[in-house]
Amino acid sequence: MQSICFVDCFTQKKRVRRVSEEVTVRDFFKRMLTTFTWIPKGAMQTTPLHSTDSAEDVRNKLRKMHPDYIEEEAGHLAAEDDDDADSNDGGDASDMFNRFGGGDAILAQVESDDDEEIDDTTFKPTDVPFVVSRADPQEPKMELYVYDEPEDNLYVHHDMTVTAFPLSCAWLTDGTMSLAALGTMMPFIEIWPLDVIDAVEPACLLGGCENSDDNYRRKLKKDKLKEDSHKDAVLALKWNTHVQHILASGSADNSIKLWDLNNQTCVGTYREQEKIQSLDWHHQEANLLLSGGFDGQVILRDCRRPEDAAVRWALDDVLEHVEFAFHSNLVYASTSNGTLQALEPRMNSTALWKLQAHDAETTFACSRQLPGLVATGGKDGFLALWDARNAAAEPTQIVSRKYKTGSVMSIAFHPNSPHLIGACGSRGQPLVYTMTQDLATIF
């Protein structure tokens, strides 16, 4: 079956008011959703956590309550870090944060005499959670939604007020909690604990000012930033699922940075000529990093051999999005003039094919579970599915429709469920789209 669900179909507490098409610029940005990020099934704690304390207060309380556990766990993680240094590889998710949030920032479970409140916030096995970023200039926020698959409806579970206009987001975990790395117009990265309701601040920051209080002043002074911090907005984020203590970020300061989440420091920086718009880690070779920027350059690097020359392709417009194909050795890239192109790492000159997918700015996603399935979304408001199983030929269109997202800002296949795709855009309504019927005769 084909199923399409928008947030205005149903919400947990109230219906969403439809807004007139005649809106001011401020209203437009207030509605706009800039990122859509799936949370894998089973990754959220069944019963969420509540917090009225700062992250540092929580850590201090836990150390006093469980000193033996903290000391033992710190020793275990330090040993794992020594092993990682020898192997130059990541570890299991449960071993990766020896100082950062996660394991030692677990809060008390929700305590309430209100059974209805607990039931409303508890995650059921059929719940499909995701996070979107809302670009409200007065109150920018991240919203954690739940898609109730059997009932085919969406509702906001809880939200988090963030520092500034959100631009990029990546889900990650420390093995105990679901977390979101958020890039904004500010020159630092916020790491938010998604399992915590009423969280008033991030678990930690990557980059920013030496004095953390300076990060949130009305006007941040760049001369107060840490030496390894970004110096401008963070436009792209990507977690390395193999070396799980590494997060990559791309910025309007023309740099890519690699962050060690264990100690919240920058462990590598790459400089480019223009702003970095998109990043992707290879799904099998953990050292390969792909990037795309405002100069039309698609760049493939081996991060273990920074002295080697990167593979570069020069495209004809600003890069909107780049990804490694999951089931081939190809690289895909989309541009602001609406094209989707396939690139071969061994042929760093021209594209294998170039598809005019949309009229203007285009983003896309590659399916993990269905080889050759690609989804695109454009500024024109259309979402399309493409059959790209023939790597040497231009993809064929399966379906193209215009939904209520408006200009599509972000699109993503669900990491566990091959039939689900999510998207969001300028109209402020996230979309969950079940593709079963559209793909029935093709995949």
From TrEMBL:
<dbReference type="GO" id="GO:0005840">
    <property type="term" value="C:ribosome"/>
</dbReference>
<dbReference type="InterPro" id="IPR036322">
    <property type="entry name" value="WD40_repeat_dom_sf"/>
</dbReference>
<feature type="repeat" description="WD">
    <location>
        <begin position="227"/>
        <end position="269"/>
    </location>
</feature>
<keyword id="KW-0853">WD repeat</keyword>
<dbReference type="InterPro" id="IPR044285">
    <property type="entry name" value="PWP1"/>
</dbReference>
<dbReference type="InterPro" id="IPR015943">
    <property type="entry name" value="WD40/YVTN_repeat-like_dom_sf"/>
</dbReference>
<keyword id="KW-0677">Repeat</keyword>
<dbReference type="GO" id="GO:0006364">
    <property type="term" value="P:rRNA processing"/>
</dbReference>
<keyword id="KW-0687">Ribonucleoprotein</keyword>
<dbReference type="InterPro" id="IPR001680">
    <property type="entry name" value="WD40_rpt"/>
</dbReference>
<dbReference type="InterPro" id="IPR019775">
    <property type="entry name" value="WD40_repeat_CS"/>
</dbReference>
<keyword id="KW-0689">Ribosomal protein</keyword>
<feature type="repeat" description="WD">
    <location>
        <begin position="355"/>
        <end position="396"/>
    </location>
</feature>
<keyword id="KW-0597">Phosphoprotein</keyword>
<dbReference type="GO" id="GO:0005634">
    <property type="term" value="C:nucleus"/>
</dbReference>
<dbReference type="Pfam" id="PF00400">
    <property type="entry name" value="WD40"/>
</dbReference>
<protein>
    <submittedName>
        <fullName>WD40 repeat-containing protein, putative</fullName>
    </submittedName>
</protein>
